[in-house]
Amino acid sequence: QVQLVESGGGLGQAGGSLRLSCVVSGRTINRYAMGWFRQVPGKEREFVEHISWTGSSVYYADSVKGRFTISRSTTKNTVYLQMKSLRLEDTAVYYCATDRREMYLYSDYGTTTEYDNWGQGAQVTVSS
Questions:
Q1: Which of 48, 90, 106, 119 is positioned for an S-S bond with 4, CB 3.0–4.6 A?
Q2: Using one digit for the tens of pLDDT, what is the confidence trace for 91-127?
């Protein structure tokens, strides 16, 4: 059984920083790519960042370029999302997810259907 548990969300100030963590159990992240998505009420879940199963490739949405960084600890089986220079529009529920294919390099990383296990979500609220 694969489980993902996000933590680290909460209230942040515009221009400030927050870091999200996603602890994965039941699947080793050094064999599966991982992604972060976010969602606001009434909108579709949108792609934020992706890290390949090798850890050597990272992809990100234009909206977070230069501000958010995905990383991982294979010893802790945990994926992180470091968020800096927060904006009001970053307010959302953030989800981590595991790629559905093991050791696969050609993920359609920007689509939710590429991922088969999701965390419960972490609320991030940015205030002015």
A1: 119
A2: 999 999 999 999 998 889 999 999 999 999 999 999 9
